[in-house]
Structure formats: C-alpha cells, structure tokens
Amino acid sequence: MSKLSSIQREVLVGILLGDANLQTFNHGRTYRLRCLQSEKHKEYLYHLFDIYKNISNSGPHHLQEVVSHTDIRYEKDINKRYNKYYFNTLTSSSFRFYAQSFYLNGVKMVPYYIERLLTPRSLAYWFMDDGSLKWRDHSKGFRFCTDSFTYRDVCLLSTVLQKKFHLATSIVKNRNSHRISILSQSHDHFRNLISPYIIDSMKYKIA
After folding, report:
1. CA 97, 103, 108: angle at the middle one, nearest 5?
2. How many Å is the Cα radius of gyration of the chain?
3. Cβ(174)–Cβ(159) under 8 Å?
4. What is the average pLDDT across 32-56?
5. Distance CA 41, CA 82 (A)
6. How many helices (DSSP H) and strands (DSSP E) are in the chain?
7. CA-CA distance, 207 to 183, in Å (whole number)?
8. I need a labelling partner for 86 at 20 to 30 A (CA). Which of 55, 129, 130, 150 fits?
9. Is 124 exposed, middle or buried (0-12, 13-18, 19+ CB in 10 A)?
10. What is the pLDDT of residues 81-140, one digit of tens each?
11. Which stretch of DSSP H or E encloses residue 196?
12. Exposed, middle or buried, 166 (CB in 10 Å: 0-12/13-18/19+)?
C-alpha cells in the first residue's frame, strides 16, 4: 500500500483525537483505520471515506446497534435501534507510527509531541469529530469533548491550543472527566482557523 499523503496524515491526527481508531491483528506490525459515525453524521463519514478510499477496498457500510434499557415508569424493557455507518481501510505499516504515538497498551493517549503533529486542518477534523458550540444561543465559546483522555492529556492539548494556535482555553470538569473550552474571546480566531476545512454538513457546529 502506498504511503499516506500529507492530507491523510493531517486528517488522521485530528480524527484520532476524536472518534476514529486504529486496529491491529498481528501484534502491531500493521494497522487499519476504522471510522464510525451516527446516521446524523453520515455525510461526514462518507467525506472521510473519500479521503482514504485509495487505501480502502470497499465503501462505507451500514450498522444497526440495538441498545436495551428499562423504562422504570412502565416497568418494561425497551430496545432502541441506532443506525450507524463505518468503513475500514486496508491494513498497512503506514499507520504504525500513529498507533505507537496515540496508543499505550491499547488505550488512547495524547503523544507528548502533539504540538508538532497538530495543524489547522487536524484541528478542524478533531472539531468535526468531537467539538461543538459550548452553549448554543448563550455563549460564543466552543468545546472539545475530551472525556476519554486523562487530565494530564487534556492539559497538554489545552496548552498546545494556547501556545501554537494562540487560543484562549480553559479546562472544565465533566463528572469524572475533563473537557476543553475555547473561550468566547477566541471565537472569531478559532472559526477563521478551521473554517476552510469544515464541510457543509458540519457548518452548524460553528454557526
């Protein structure tokens, strides 16, 4: 398989900070990229597939997840069905550097050299994956849902956003995890950084 293009590498950094993951089936010699999105973000998933289609052997697939929960009011079990879409790339050693950078013992982490890897394009894809307006109609700030990362990793990301991109940030506790807020005074600067890369179906996030 050919090496990753510069755009594929930049996008990969952003989506690995978000929902995408790398999988290995041979103890780390090669990896494949797996992207999964809800039906609401189907267009975004297809956009990601277009970026990596030269290293994929089939198009996006539909997946229906059934989640069961008990409705206490009516004392009965309810099954909810969620439509999702995903694609996998071919396995390749080209992903190995990123797997070794973003995973430790199978758990996602933020590499200490993330400042070197993160670009405005990466930032935009991270935001499309895991970002949102902080409080629609009440704040001009944005936030990244970094719940899966340790507090140390979140602090590192926040520092990089301040140092490299000159964004005013804060870290907000969310139950047992932490999230990054882009403060209102950086609203215009942040939008200008990522707007060139935000696809139409995701523009509601920065409206």
Report:
1. 135
2. 18
3. no
4. 96
5. 12
6. 7, 10
7. 16
8. 150
9. buried
10. 889 999 999 999 999 999 999 999 999 999 999 999 999 999 999 999 999 987 655 678
11. none
12. exposed
Secondary structure of residue 197 in the 3-state scheme: helix
pTM above 0.85, yes or no: yes
Residue 133: strand pairing partners:
142
Strand, helix or coil for residue 90: coil
Domain 6-206 fold: Endonuclease I-creI (3.10.28)
**37 C-beta neighbours (distance < 10 Å), count:** 22
130 vs 132: CA distance, rounded Å: 7
Dist. CA 96–CA 119, nearest whole Å? 20
Query: How many CA atoms within 13 Å lie on the side-chain side of 174?
Result: 19
**Residue type for 185, please?**
Q
